[in-house]
Amino acid sequence: MADMPLSRLARDFAAEISYHDWSDAPFRTDRAGHRREHDGRNASAFHLDATQTENVRINVMWVVAQVLGHHDPNLDIYRFAEACGVDTRTPSGQPRSGSITAGLRHDNIGRLGGPVLCHSCHVCDRAVQPDDQGKIRREGVARQDSSAVGWAWGPVVVHEECRTKLRTPLDHLVGNGYVSIWEKIAA
Ligand SMILES: [Zn+2]
Would 90 disulfide with which of 44, 58, 62, 94, CB 3.0-4.6 Å? Predict the structure, then answer.
């Protein structure tokens, strides 16, 4: 994860996030690449202070980094944050503050979790909301002799209440060299 150059897509997102003037974001809708000084007499009378503006930028950076990192495990989050114009140092000036990575959701083996709204139940096709711990349930089928990560089918996301209705193409083999397995992962 360290020291990988940013992908073209990550660089382009970072350039937009860095350039965009977030200081009046709560007060007016505007185009991408908006700069407050170009608004002339239409400029909002209100604007955020420097800390508030930076908080908006960091939140936008995290939302975009979540999806980029989910699709590209090599995303260097610090490099991306810095390209977005975010200061990644700790309050005492040490490099690479842990708060930068703490803003991202990780699954139980350290990968970045997928977009929240993309989880739909394999049985009923309705959205699955994370539980109180921010986790969702995944089910699948594995060979009896392999470790839990060796999915032979799945994993698919299901509601707790739908799991008994899950049907898989390997059902006829379950109990005969295959087992049903499940896990909870960060959504
Ligand atoms: Zn369901």
Answer: 94
Q: Write the pLDDT tens digit of every residue in 95-131.
A: 999 999 999 987 656 778 776 656 889 999 888 888 8
How many A from CA of 119 to the centre of ligand 1?
11
Last residue of some domain: 44, 73, 102?
Answer: 102
> How many Cβ atoms are within 10 Å of 117's Cβ, its own excluded?
8
Q: Provide the number of structural domains found in the chain.
A: 2
Return the SS3 of 183. strand
Distance 73 CA to ligand 1 centre (A): 29
Q: How far is the centre of ligand 1, averaged over its atoms, from the C-alpha of 179 (Å)?
A: 21
| CA pair distance 163, 137, nearest whole angstrom | 9
Q: Ligand 1 centre and the CA of 140: distance in Å?
A: 15
Task: Specify the pTM.
Answer: 0.64
The reply to whether 111 falls in a domain is no
Task: Tell me which of 102, 125, 154 is where a domain ends.
Answer: 102
